[in-house]
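We modelled the chain as a single entity of 95 amino acids. Its sequence is:
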Amino acid sequence: MTNIPPAQDDADHDPAATRPSGATPPRQSRKLADRVLIAFHQACDQGELEVARRLLDIYEFMALRRESAGDASRRRAMDALVAGHERLWHLRHPG
């Protein structure tokens, strides 16, 4: 016979219940491309340059396939892409 844990009330499943007071809830509306770019910068911060390069390639793929995006949105994506390539180059060529 298997042991079934007792039912827990909804407060046990509420992520806000485990979050420190004053902490902001995670943003659920962030675009996937933005999350990839954040992961790229985190990989750079941690010295994972090959991982960073692959994440930047993914971000580039995502940015370039958005043909219908507005000019301002596409321009921001291209600026972030160029800045990412520059950051990666500087990390690989300290000097």
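As a brief sanity check on the tokenised model: The CA atoms of residues 7 and 73 lie 47 Å apart. Residues 7-19 have pLDDT under 50 and may be disordered.
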